[in-house]
Amino acid sequence: MNFRGRYRAPAVGFQIAPMVDIMLFLLCFFVTSQMYMRWEAEMDITLPTAQSARIEARLPGELILNVKNDGTVVVNGRQLNEAELGTLLQRLVKLFPGQPVVLRADRRTAYEHVIRVLDLCRRADIWNVSFAAESATDAVSSTTR
């Protein structure tokens, strides 16, 4: 008995329900990843301004070190002392050599606090350090709001 010849399954058209599910999943993913990106940078830090400052594309795995004006260092929402920051940086270099680091210091931060963090980076053999600054045009537009 050959039943295959008689029964033909109808051609399946475009399925909209799975496409909606996938789009909703992608939307949720990008919204949550955007929230984590914003949490990584401390919002109460006022960056210094520079005429040549520009927003660069973020590097994968980039670590942001936020130095507040009282000298405290915040990494991923956690306040770290000097010993904890040193161990974190050394572990990071051991796992990922050439790790990029962005140093965001408040404009009122004393120079000694920035140098202390730079010294910790140097002792951990981190050489890929960049400094965050706000462009002068963005600073003017944000103060007039």
Structure characterization notes:
The chain is α/β, with parallel strands linked by helices. The protein has a single domain, classed as Nucleotidyltransferase, domain 5, CATH 3.30.420.270. The chain is built from 4 helices and 7 strands, in the order αββββαβαββα. Strands 4-3-2-5-6 form a 5-stranded mixed sheet. It has a two-stranded parallel ribbon with strand order 1-7. α2 runs parallel beside α3. The chain starts with 15 loop residues before the first helix and ends with a helix. The model is unreliable at 139-145 (pLDDT under 50).
Which characteristics define this entry?
Nucleotidyltransferase, domain 5; alpha/beta; 145 residues; 4 helices; 5-stranded mixed sheet; disordered C terminus
Secondary structure blueprint with pairings:
Layout: H1 16-40, E1 49-50, E2 63-67, E3 73-75, E4 78-80, H2 82-95, E5 101-105, H3 111-123, E6 129-131, E7 134-135, H4 136-143
Parallel strand pairs: 1-7, 2-5, 5-6
Antiparallel strand pairs: 2-3, 3-4
At a glance:
The chain has 145 residues and is of the alpha/beta class. Helices cover 41% and strands 16% of the residues.
Known CATH architecture = 2-Layer Sandwich
Low-pLDDT runs of 5+ residues are 139-145
Q: Which radius of gyration do the C-alpha atoms yield?
A: 24 Å
Q: What level of helicity do the residues show?
A: 40-55%
Number of helices: 4
